[in-house]
Amino acid sequence: MMSRHHGTFKKLNIPGPAPWPIIGSLIEINTGGFQKFQMDCMRKYGKVYGFYGGLSPMTIEIGDKEMLRIILVKEFANFTDRIVFKGFNGDVDTGINNLSGDHWRHVRSKITPAFSTGKLRKMAPLIDHASDTLVESLMRNVKGGNDVIEMMEVYGGYTMDVICSTAFGIQIDSQNNPNDEFVTNARKFLNLKLASPLILVLIFLPKLHFLMPLMGWSFLDKDIQAFFRRVTTTLLAARIAGDKSRVDFLQLMKNAQYEKEDSDEEDDNEYISVKKPSTSWSRKGITFDEILGNAETFFFAGYETTTITLSMASYYLAMYPEYQDKLRQELLDKIGSKTMTYDNIRDVEYLEMVINETLRISPPATRTDRVCLKDTEVNGIKIPAGMNISVPIYGIHHDPDNWRDPEKFIPERFAEKDSYDPMTFLPFGYGPRICIGMRLVQMELKLSLAKVIRNFRISISSETQIPPEMMKLGLLKPKTVKLKLEEIK
Ligand code: HEM
């Protein structure tokens, strides 16, 4: 086993860590997390190396800018898919994150209009409302003497509110009603059991994946899936008879279900949109299962990533009060006491710089991946069909060839938009399969962070963990971010 896989990488002239029998590099990855694995490998083997993650196929990790431009953009047609374990994800199997080939193209092109600038502008009031609730809830805590706050928790409540209202069109104040039925189910839904024996099946017996749906097994709890199926059915039925002008993803996807053309302005980001499937994929609209799978996917993809980014941005602003003061001053200069809106918040350039630097130094998704669908030569390396490609987002963001003093938090790096190569800053991935929620989340991050900084001075306290200890598996997630807040009068 060892020599066979070693042999493949050797033939391709790609260096990499020697794999353990059966488990490949899983021990190294699991003990230090993908971030440490990427940094260690990059130091030892350079920007392109091969590793082996168990019985699943081998992976080439590529941190080289030119090669990434080819894989993510130029030759995207040969690298359309992600590594997915079919039949493992219950109802989320039909979310775009888990779809492949023309099925992915079809569904992504159908739901893309829901993320256009026009739609996002109409969704801004939903986010505005949730961010006001966030500030009110922080204010209540601070005024009540509870001024050292677990930011992961409060931002988690805010993010939950935003997802419930933008994805499902349900206004629930989870920040004040944590026991609401929808909220408790959503929390359980998000709380995947990563220690589940199913993970072991996935790692050691991948050839048995096909059994999962047949046995009714999935990562997701059956009762919780049934709950969301019920809620979505009821909500969609109400929409058929009801108000068609609503702008939440459920409504917009329902419009796509019946193939109503969206008359709103076209998308202005070449990568958010995707070309229509070129082949015989002739089915119109999208199905109920695809609507459900995607509404749930927005939960999975958006909840923790956003909560982490807000918590880490607040942590860095507490660690570097000079940047916090600069941000507050720019907010005062550009918006003053006026209401913050989708449009005026975009003028506060320093806000974007702080968020970008947070996402560079601490990207919640430390990696993304593609599968090579057709033998392709990329910068002299012959990548065979079936090979997995991993993009080391964390390693790229911390590579001293890309960023000077990469471990230092310096928002000013992003002062000039064209001063860096887009292949060196990939918190949302890149190319036609870039994060579909990117611009939605940028608005969500900006509105809330701006309101928090306008109303509170944030600082570290004796309870702040410096630096925050990060989870080893999954997202780059701090275990705790406790910060002290003081009202600005
Ligand atoms: C700070 C927050 C977020 C970060 C850092 C993030 C990051 C990412 C990354 C790295 C990818 C992979 C892109 C690629 O392979 O090129 C991705 C995909 C995706 N994201 Fe996000 N994301 C965030 C928020 C959101 C939100 C709020 C949503 C919900 C609308 C969302 C929905 C998705 C979906 C559906 C995909 C799969 C797209 C596809 O396969 O076509 N994300 N995200």
Outline type: globular
Total beta strands: 9
Number of helices: 16
**From the structure provided, what is the oligomeric state, counting identical versus distinct chains?**
single chain
Question: What can you tell me about this protein's structure?
Answer:
This protein is globular. Mean pLDDT is 85; it is low at 265-272. A hairpin with a 2-residue loop joins strand 5 (376-378) and strand 6 (381-383). The chain is of the alpha+beta class. It has helices at residues 2-11, 26-45, 65-74, 101-111, 117-143, 151-168, 181-190, 197-204, 211-215, 222-241, 249-257, 288-319, 321-334, 349-361, 393-397, 438-455, and strands at 48-51, 59-62, 148-150, 368-371, 376-378, 381-383, 388-391, 456-459, 482-487. The chain has a four-stranded mixed β-sheet. The chain has a three-stranded antiparallel β-sheet with strand order 3-9-8. Strands 5-6 form a two-stranded antiparallel sheet. The chain binds protoporphyrin IX containing FE. Protoporphyrin IX containing FE (HEM) binds at residues 96-97, 108, 297-298, 301-302, 305-306, 309, 364-365, 368, 427-430, 433-437, 440-441.
List keywords for this structure.
489 residues; alpha+beta; 4-stranded mixed sheet; 3-stranded antiparallel sheet; 16 helices; 47% helix; globular; binds protoporphyrin IX containing FE; Cyt_P450_sf
Please provide a brief summary of the model.
This protein has 489 residues and is an alpha+beta fold.
